[in-house]
Design a protein that fits this description.
It comes from Mycolicibacterium rhodesiae (strain NBB3). One of its GO terms (biological process) is sterol biosynthetic process. This is Emopamil binding protein. It is a single chain. By secondary structure, this protein is mainly alpha-helical. The protein is about 65% helix and about 0% strand. It has one domain. The longest helix is centred in the middle third of the chain and has 33 residues.
Length: about 270
């Protein structure tokens, strides 16, 4: 006699596309954001009140303090919690939601101040930058920011405008209540934004390569740490983010199809994320 074996249906877990991070990764993201903000503000105020001299030494120390954590932060994406079993789609969602504010706040925080400062004459040579220290010190490494370079000005405009769009899309994508159709639209806009920023980053670097790095100051530190090192994430991650967004759009579109065929409006269908 053959023994009957009860088979249970295995239901595939729905991915959380809105908040896919484990608690420990979320805490690290927030901790690094707070730490770098404290260093930014502390150094800027310290220089402004003459507590910290705007020397090359303080420049190096500050950049190492906030630069190294920011450069290494994307590696946290690989740190699974005990027992956590993430799918490729889970990782794609987290990479996307990590990178959108990561790049957007960089564009808005840095480029916006340079953009505002150009017509106001903020970036003329000085040894006493005051509250402009954060941007002034980067302009010492990439002198195009302080020289009125038209290419750099154009990249600033593109970076700020695109950064605002990207961060707005991020605020939508982290909402679990966002409908499938709206999530797909937001992902497409984010895809376009990241593609634009990736292209502008390529122009930013390749134009200086073509100039023979003549605009790079502060010697080896300015070239290898500030100009290249601190920008490595913005070179390496964008193609991966574009693929990650593609995976999510593909998944959501395939989900939406059967729902529409069953007579459910795509606007009414909400992603499990």
């Amino acid at each position: 006699m053959r023994e009957a074996v009860d088979m249970t249906n295995v239901v595939e877990r729905e991915p959380d596309l809105a908040q896919p991070w484990a608690p420990h990764r979320k805490r690290i993201y927030l901790a690094v954001a707070v730490f770098t903000s404290v260093v930014f503000v502390g150094m800027t105020l310290g220089v402004a009140v003459d507590l910290i001299p705007p020397t090359f030494t303080s420049d190096v120390v500050a950049n190492l303090l906030f630069g190294i954590p920011v450069i290494l932060l994307p590696l946290v994406l690989f740190w699974d919690a005990p027992g956590e079993n993430r799918t490729r789609l889970d990782k794609a969602a987290e990479l996307t939601l990590f990178y959108l504010p990561y790049t957007a706040f960089s564009q808005i925080g840095y480029e916006l101040m340079f953009l505002i400062g150009h017509p106001l004459g903020w970036w003329t040579p000085t040894t006493d930058p005051g509250l402009k220290w954060l941007w002034w010190q980067y302009g010492l490494a990439d002198t195009r920011y302080a020289s009125g370079n038209p290419w750099t000005f154009a990249l600033e405009v593109v970076g700020v405008a695109t950064g605002i769009i990207v961060i707005v899309m991020w605020t939508r994508l982290v909402r679990r209540s966002l409908s499938t159709e709206s999530r797909i639209r937001a992902l497409w806009i984010a895809f376009a934004g990241i593609a634009v920023l990736m292209s502008s980053t390529a122009v930013y670097f390749l134009s200086e390569v073509g100039a023979g790095f003549n605009d790079i100051g502060q010697g080896a530190f300015g070239l290898w740490f500030k100009f290249i090192g601190e920008n490595i994430p913005f070179i390496v991650l964008p193609p991966l983010v574009l693929f990650a967004i593609h995976l999510q759009i593909d998944f959501l579109t395939r989900q939406a199809g059967p729902r529409v065929a069953a007579g459910q409006s795509p606007k009414a269908a909400t992603a499990s994320s």
